[in-house]
Specification:
The complex is a heterodimer of chains A (385) and B (259). Chain A is an alpha+beta fold. Chain A is 51% helix and 15% strand. The chains are: A alpha+beta (385), B alpha/beta (259).
């Protein structure tokens, strides 16, 4: 086991951190306030090959793995300007297409996803199904050479900036007549496809959407990979999602901790900087420990995933996502406490971050569903649902 | 065009830096080592010139083993190859000795143009360009905020308090640059991966045909005799606005040459 990153991984970390410093949290909040996206940052990261770092070299990617993509998101988030669509476009969709797509699909999508010139969103959650993917009602029916897709999706990130959405639908199994999952790349300008922004109470540049698929007719090539292997394909994409969610949360925790520590070092109310008081020092030390533990599990998950062990990666990715969300929520909360009144001001931007970071406990998979997963799969306990 | 960019690894400018008590030389362990910021601009300019005129960028760096990290960064930005002069005997060398060693490297490598940052953030002598030009017998064009090359003619904008002077010369030449000249690129992931395979030649003083006794602290013409910690920041100037606040603010800025 090697806990030292390679020269290239460290160089990537430094290069992304350098780019992220140029933008930072002020850029993120300005874009959010103006209802805009972090387009300049996305494009520059794409040009530097950071967005497609995990995608195959033959399609313009970096030929590295999820470990490297997690470095990219962690460093961006640590500077306060995380890019949510990294979780979706190269990590979930890029991975699924690279691993299971046909040659034509790979040629069509991967170069654009790798450069960042195209973005693919991901649509799984439905209003009536929630976390229960067995209740998905978005159904695709075969009609000659085409598929006809109908259904609804909710809480789908970044559809307005996406060229297509990878929709998790279901098809009828010819043999058993049962519905089974299937993945479709649905262009956002397809006839019958429409979307509406959801009025969210958190402030971030990426918006959330409700999708309507009303008899969307798609060519046969829109079905990604094998009709019969969709469940495995889906899990292959969801592990990277969790690793990336963890990377984002770990980066955010670092961001909050950095702010708290630099404030606690400088701010002097009596004779010593407030960071000397154990009432503030110890909670920050605990945050540091929890964040490093979460980071370690995230790196383990990424390493297992890149090594091809999907099953072991699944457990580690879930645990990492759980731990990183907890560490991030605690880091922002304790940073606010450290800054006192300043922690509520717009200048330090911690109060606004509180709502954002709280989302990591809910999405992309809730804390409770992870606990269910660990209870059943790691501990072998019976399930209640 | 054969461009050599000189690059120095320095202690991080934003960290607390200090000297070693034993010999008053730089304490390299006290702070993180980074590439001298102005050298990033020098590398960027070298890359832009070769992109426009063809040729190669060679990085030359003198420094301890650890400087390899900064050399890798320069290569990941797009430089083609590097020469690393690394020798214990060089410890404590002043600008005069450093220029003698670097001149040897440059003579050995050959060059059309040498580019360097106008100063390093650690020693800040800002004399290396002039010393090198003198030793190499080529023109020096310093404090460049713009470089134009046309055949063997070179012209720069030399930054001044009042704007800039246009300075012209012929290649081969030595150019030092200021940060106004460009915006250095970030290493791309492809650049990072490619850097691994680029050649880095490591040379000792003996490899350059220099007697080790002629370099280092003992052979240096200058010596740091004593030093003190930076004094705490002084209080600022408070200007009372009696209706002429704007004028006073302008006078203050003018006295500091901001306007």
């Amino acid at each position: 086991m090697d806990f030292t990153e390679t020269d290239e991984q460290r160089a990537l970390r430094a290069a992304v951190a350098g780019l992220a410093r140029k933008y930072g949290y002020a850029y993120y909040t300005a874009k959010t306030r103006d209802g805009e996206r972090q387009t300049e940052l996305w494009q520059e990261a794409g040009k530097l090959g950071f967005i497609g770092v995990n995608l195959p070299e033959q399609y313009g990617g970096g030929g590295a793995g999820m470990y490297e993509l997690a470095i990219v998101l962690e460093e961006l988030a640590a500077a306060g300007c995380g890019l949510l669509m990294l979780v979706v476009s190269p990590a979930i969709c890029g991975t699924i297409i690279a691993r299971f797509g046909t040659a034509a699909q790979q040629q069509d999508w991967l170069p654009r996803l790798a450069s960042g010139s195209a973005i693919m969103a991901f649509g799984i959650t439905e209003p009536d199904a929630g976390s229960n993917s067995h209740k998905l009602t978005t159904v695709a029916e075969r009609d000659g050479d085409t598929w006809v897709l109908s259904g609804r999706k909710i809480y789908i990130s970044g559809v307005d900036e996406a060229d297509a959405v990878l929709i998790v639908g279901r098809t009828t199994d010819a043999r058993t007549g049962k519905l089974r999952p299937a993945l479709f790349a649905v262009p956002t300008d397809a006839a019958g496809f429409s979307y509406r922004p959801l009025d969210m109470d958190v402030a971030m540049p990426e918006k959330q959407f409700l999708l309507f698929l009303d008899q969307v007719r798609l060519p046969a090539g829109a079905l990604i990979g094998e009709q019969d292997a969709a469940l495995m394909q889906l899990f292959a994409g969801l592990n990277p999602e969790r690793i990336m969610a963890a990377a984002s949360a770990v980066g955010t925790a670092r961001f909050a901790l950095d702010r708290a520590v630099s404030y606690a070092r400088e701010r002097t109310v009596w004779s010593t900087p407030i960071g000397a008081h154990q009432g503030l020092a110890h909670p920050l030390a605990q945050v540091k420990i929890e964040l490093e533990l979460a980071r370690l599990m995230m790196q383990k998950a990424a390493t297992l995933y890149d090594g091809g062990d999907d099953l072991a990666a699944g457990e580690a990715a879930n645990m990492a996502k759980y731990a990183a969300a907890e560490a991030a929520v605690r880091a922002v909360d304790q940073a606010m406490q450290t800054l006192g009144g300043s922690g509520v001001t717009a200048e330090y931007g911690l109060a606004g971050l509180l709502a954002n970071v709280r989302v990591t406990r809910v999405a992309p998979v809730s804390r409770e569903m992870i606990l269910n997963y660990v209870a059943q799969h790691s501990l072998g306990l019976p399930r209640s649902y | 065009m054969n461009i050599v960019v000189l690059m120095k690894q320095v202690p991080d400018t934003w960290s607390e830096r200090t000297l070693r008590a034993a010999d008053n030389t730089l304490d390299r362990d006290a702070a993180d080592a980074v590439m001298n910021e102005l050298d990033e601009y020098a590398i960027e300019e070298g890359l832009r010139l070769t992109e426009a005129h063809g040729g190669e960028v060679t990085i030359v760096s003198m420094g301890p083993e650890k400087a390899t990290e900064s050399i890798r960064k320069a290569l990941s930005m797009g430089a083609d190859k590097a020469v690393h002069v690394s020798d214990e005997a060089l410890h404590g060398s002043d600008a005069l000795v450093t220029s003698a060693v670097l001149a040897k490297v440059l003579e050995r490598a050959g060059f059309d143009l040498v580019i360097l940052g106008s100063e390093s953030t650690d020693a800040r002598t800002g004399v290396l360009a002039a010393m090198l030009a003198e030793r190499l017998g080529v023109p020096q064009l310093t404090f460049a905020s713009k470089v134009d090359i046309d055949g063997s003619a070179i012209a720069i904008h030399r930054l001044a308090d009042y704007g800039y002077d246009t300075v012209e010369g012929t290649l081969p030449a030595v150019v030092s640059v200021v940060e106004k000249i460009n915006e250095p690129r970030y290493p791309s992931f492809k650049g990072i991966m490619a850097a691994k395979k680029k050649p880095v030649e490591t040379l000792t003083v003996a490899d350059l045909g220099i007697d080790p006794a002629q370099v280092g602290l003992a052979a240096s013409a200058t010596e740091v005799v004593e030093w003190a910690k930076r004094p705490p920041r002084a209080a600022g100037v408070v200007v009372t606005d009696d209706g002429d606040g704007g004028t006073k603010a302008a006078e203050f800025l003018a006295s500091r040459k901001f306007i």
